[in-house]
Amino acid sequence: MQIQKIIGLLAVTLISIVKAHTVLLPAYGKRCFFETLSKGDELSISFQFGDRSPSSTDQLDGDFVIYGPNDEIVTELSETQHGDVTISAKNAGKHSYCFINERSSVDTKDVTFNIYGTIYVDLDNPETDTVDAAVRQLSKLVHDVKNEQSYIVIRERTHRNTAESTNSRVKYWSIFQLVVVIFNSLFQIYYLKRFFEVTSYV
């Protein structure tokens, strides 16, 4: 009987589907998605704004909004580079979430986001087994680790672009210095040669 409870709980936990997406945000535009939730369900979204341009060295930001079934704003983050938001549905229905780029003309900005939800289980109910709480907690920790890895990948991409840009500038500056040194050396040789040249007059 205990095994059946655990299997049932795992099935319920697996219903909370994990999705990882990367979408391109249009300049002065936004991208919206939705999830249909029942009352008491949890919806967690973690996201990170980035830049698809391989030459970009800036960490971009944007806005994030979650709307309830009646188009009321549930959560709003402005000019943020990344975020991790969890809401509990107060009403059943379609909950929309939007990534907004309306204040920026950058057309290579993208956003990577993960979505996972949890079907409501009342842990204060005396009939709820403590194994249920442990499985839910373990599932949440696994998702947190996965989201942190996605965040680190995007940060690494931005830092790598910065390092490559810096290396490129150092390379061209070194070439410029080398040309200046060679030119200066040739000028000095020519000048000293002229300075010590013996001129005879007849």
What does this molecule look like?
Belongs to the EMP24/GP25L family. Keywords: Membrane, Signal, Transmembrane, Transmembrane helix. The chain has 202 residues and is of the alpha+beta class. It has one domain (2-156): Jelly Rolls, CATH 2.60.120. The protein is 40% helix and 31% strand. The chain is built from two helices and eight strands; from the N terminus they run αββββββββα. Strands 1-8-3-6 form a four-stranded antiparallel β-sheet.
List the keywords.
signal; 202 residues; 40% helix; 31% strand; 2 helices; GOLD domain-containing protein; Jelly Rolls; four-stranded antiparallel beta sheet; single chain; alpha+beta; GOLD_dom_sf
Shape: elongated
User: In total, how many domains does the architecture comprise?
Assistant: 1
Mean pLDDT: 80
Quantity of strands, as a count: 8
CATH topology: Jelly Rolls
Radius of gyration (CA) equals 30 Å
As laid out across the biggest beta sheet, the strand order is 1-8-3-6
Summarize the main sheet.
Answer: 4 strands, antiparallel
| Level-1 CATH class name | Mainly Beta
The helix/strand class is alpha+beta
Percent in helix: 25-40%
Strand content: 25-35%
Q: Low-confidence stretches at least 5 residues in length (pLDDT < 50)? A: 9-18
Level-2 CATH architecture: Sandwich
- Distance N terminus to C terminus? 123 Å
Number of helices: 2
